Amino acid sequence: MKKIIVILIVTVLLLCTGWTASAADEIAVGAVTPLTGKLAVYGEGFQKAMLLALDEVNASGGINGKPMKIVFEDNNSTSKGSVSAIQKLITIHRFPVIFGPAASTNFLAVCPIAQQNQTILIGAESAAASISKCGSYVFRVFPSDLLQGIGVAELTEYLNYKEVVLTYINNDWGVGLADVFKEYFLKSGGKLIDEFAYDEGKTDYRSEILRIKKNSPRAVVNLTYIKEGATMLKQAYETKVEVQWLMGSAAKSPKLVELAGVAAEGVIGTYPTFSQDTSQYIAYKNGWEKKYPGQKTPIFGEYNYDMVKLTAEALKQTKSMSSSDIRNALMTASKGYVGATGDKTFDTNGDVGATYGRWTIKEGKITDYK
């Protein structure tokens, strides 16, 4: 009886620490991912891209002979859900590395938790400039809005729009990006006819559209997501608001065209660009087609793919599975590392550099703007 009780106690303890016999034979990391809720339109693609990279890592020997595993926690696209998910991944599973949630507001909600617990947190699509200040255990393979804001301002100036209406989603991402745009646009001699934020997730933006129409601008800088952007484009088209819409990278998706239809025609935007002729990108593209035949590559999928592949390289090099050793290995592995999205060398803030290209929608398709 005593032996049975001891066995039961040990089993409970092992389960509480997230350790099992099979876990000893694999290297597991966590991921906070929007699989439901308003960001699920992105999240499914993120997950598929991560799983593609995971397949390739394990096909080439895993982490020094051990298979790599990603445990996904759905955050329901919210900050509250993100906090609950990361607490579970840290407290119950005790993962030393976690792939952080999409949307800067969600990422900023969890980065203090990761930093406090000395857990590595890596993002693939959160761009708010303030993320650079999250701490030494926080990284991202996607460039800061500091760079994108400048890019949108340069695009506006290039198109010779001296006066614009600025509108943006009222969250950390939208506000941060708008602030950077505004600083550089005004510095270059531009003028804001009007500026306002709007709530995400609404199905009716007619009041915002009427506010734009009242000002009769030639161009509107709209820093938005896919669903919100598509809704605004459709309702502006129905209201006969004829302006040049300028957007950022978060709206650059075939889904925007699908949802907005003809109303999306002529939109111009910016996005972090990289060569699609490199062997790394071609490998990603071919791998995607093989694993998901006939499915279009998702927006920011390449960044999620690079995040997993780079993390795997760091885990191969780390001296131990302690957070400090993994952090050092990440810094070392990133130096000169070229992924599908280009150079992923981390700076002292855990950020990467980027150059920005320009996109447009022409005849129902997203293409480079020239």
What's the helix and strand layout?
Blueprint (H helix, E strand, L loop, with lengths): L1 H15 L10 E7 L6 H20 L8 E7 L4 H13 L5 E3 L4 H13 L3 E4 L14 E3 L4 H14 L4 E7 L2 H16 L3 E8 L7 H10 L3 E5 L2 H13 L5 E4 L6 H7 L7 E6 L5 H13 L9 H17 L5 H12 L3 E2 L2 E2 L11 E8 L2 E4 L2
Parallel strand pairs: 1-2, 1-3, 3-4, 4-5, 6-7, 6-8, 8-9, 9-10
Antiparallel strand pairs: 10-13, 11-12, 13-14
Helix pairs in contact: 2-11, 3-4, 5-6, 8-9, 11-12
Provide a descriptive summary of the structure in words.
This protein has 370 residues and is of the alpha/beta class. Helix content is 44%, strand content 19%. Helix 8 (226-238) runs parallel beside helix 9 (254-260). The radius of gyration is 22 Å and the shape is globular. The model is unreliable at 2-22 (pLDDT under 50).
Could you write a compact summary of the structure shown?
It contains twelve helices and 14 strands. It is of the alpha/beta class and 370 residues long.
Mean pLDDT over all positions: 92
Number of domains: 2
Radius of gyration: 22 Å
CATH level-two architecture of the largest domain:
3-Layer(aba) Sandwich
- CATH fold type of the largest domain: Rossmann fold
Termini separation (Å)?
A: 78 Å
